[in-house]
Amino acid sequence: MESLKQQIEHGLSGHSRPHSPIEHFVRLLRHPGRLLLTPVYRYVGRRYLKREKFEIRFLITDIFLLIVALGLVASAVGWFVWHNRIENRIFFEAQVAPTEIVSGAPSTLVIRYTNGTGQELKNAYLNLTYPAYFELQEIAIGETAATGEVVSLGDIAPDEVGSIKIRGVMFGNVHGEQVFETKMTFTYGEKEKSGEKISRHVFSPVSSVLKLSLEIPDRIIASQPFSGNIVYQNTGEITLPKIIIEPEWPNGFAPATDSQKAWELPVIEAGQEGRIKFTGTAASGMENLELIFHPSFVFGTDHFQQDSLIETVKIIQPQIKISHSIEPDTAKPGGNLKTLVQYVNIGETPVYNVELSLISENPFAGSAEKILIGTVEAGASGEKEIKLTLRSTITQSETQIYEHLNISTQATASYQLEKNVAGQKITVIDSAIETPLTTPIALHSFGRYTSDRGDQLGRGPLPPTVGEQTKYWIFWNVSGTTNEIQNLTISGQLPNNVTFTGRQTVSLGNAIEYDANSKTVTWSIKELAPTFAPSSKIIGIAFEVAITPNEDQIGTSPNLVFDTSLSGTDSWTGAWITAYGTPVTTNLPGDLMADGWGIVVN
Fold it and tell me: Transmembrane residues, as ranges (predicted)?
C-alpha cells in the first residue's frame, strides 16, 4: 500500500485514474469546477447519451426547470440585497384631511416617517416638491412652524417616529393626480456615509369649489329660441384664479353667435356668484337636449378641468305649426308688406290665447299687426292676413348693405297650454322668407334765385312785379335709391305765364326736353345706378324758367312748376315705381336774396 505522501503526490499528478479516496479528494481540490459539473455530466449521460433515441421533450423540460431554478436564485439574491439597503428601512406614511380632496379648497397633508434602520441618521433634511400651482399656507415639524421647501429634521434616533404637516390649496384636474414628493437626505455610520430616501405621495381631488348650475325655462320648445343662465359660484375660502367655461353643444342645437365660444370669467372672490347667459335653438324632432359645460382653472397655458355641468332637458314639440307667404309687389318702402299667415294645431289638446304676428330685423321694418285668435282646438286650422308697416327711408348708419336689399320676415304664433292660467307663453317662429325690397326713392323739387354760396342765379325784380319778367332756377334731385332703375323719367308742368328759357344743367343722362304745346319739362335716363351708398353722388337736374305775373296774381306766390313726378321700373324687383315732388313757387324760404320777396306786387 502506498503511503499517505505517495497518495497525495499521485492525486496531484493527475496522470492516471485515482486508486484511493484520498487521491480522488486531492484531484477534486485541484479542479473545483469538476465538483459541480460531475453530477451534471452523469445526469446528461444517463438521460441522453445512453438512450438510443433522443427525446426532445426531456430537453425542453430540463431547460424550463433550469430557468425556474435560476430565477428563484436571482430573486432571492435581489431581495436580500434590496432588503438590506438602508433607505428601504426608512418608512413614510401620508394621510390627508379632509379625506376627500377638493380642488381649490385648503387641505392638510401629514407625512409620518419612521427610522427602522437600527442606527442613527445624522443631519437629516427633508426636501419637499409640491404639485404644480400648489398654494402653500402652512408647514410644521411636529408643533414647530417651518418655512421653505427644505426642512431640517436634525438627528433621527433608531426607531424614532416624526411627522411633517403641510397645509395648502391644490389646483388640479378633478379625478386627476396631485403628486407630493419627499426626499430625505442624511449621513449614517461611523464613516458618515451619505444616504437618501425618496417617496411619492399621490392624491386625487374628487370635486371642486367651483360649482355650476343651470337656469333654463320650464318648457323648451323645438325650433324656438330660448335663453338660459349658467350659474357659477365659488364655494371655497380663497379667490379663484382665471376660469374658462367651454360649452359642448350637442348635435341639433344651434347656439346664437355670442354663445358659441368659451367664456372667460373675471376674478371670483370667496362666496361670489355670477351668471352667464346663453341662447340657442333646439332642432325640430329633438326629444332630449343634453347641455354640457366644462369649467377649467387656468394658469398660463395650463388648464385644470373641474366638475363639468351636465344636464338633460326634455324638448317639447310645438302644437301650433305656422307658415306664411308674401303678397306680390307689396315690399315697397312707405307701404304695407302684406302677408298671409297659415296656422294649424297639430297636437291632441286645445291651445289658448293664440296670437299671430310678424317679425323682421330689417331696418325698413316698422310695426306689425298682432291678431288674437283665442282658442284653437286640436286639428283646427286657419289663415289671417297680417300687414307689416315699412318705413319710407332709412339712414346710412342703420345698415351696412346699400344695394339690392332683401327684407326677411318670419311669422310668429304665441299660445298657452292652459286656459285662464298665468303660465309660460310658448312662441313658435316659422322659417324666414327673403323678399326683394323695391328701392326707396327721394325726389326733391325746389327753386333758387341765389345759390347756397350766395351767387346770383336769377334775374329780374324781387318781389315779382306785374308785367315784368323774373327768372328763377328749378332743381330736381334724386337720392336714396338701392336698386337700378330702368327708363327713369322726371317731368313737371309749367303754368301759362311761366316759360322755359332753355338754360339747363344735368349731372348725367339726356338733356332736358321741353314741349311748348303741353308746357311740360322732361328729363330721362335709360338706367340710373343706386344712389344710397355713402360713396354715391346725388343726381341733379336744373333748368331756368321765367315768370311774368299778371294782375290776378297780385298778393300771391304763384307756381313756377307743379305736378312734378318720377316714374321707372325697379330692375331688382320688376316693380313700377313712382315719386312726386312738391310744387315750386316764388316763395323761396332760405334763399339769401329771395327769402321774403315772393309775393307779387303791382
Answer: 56-82
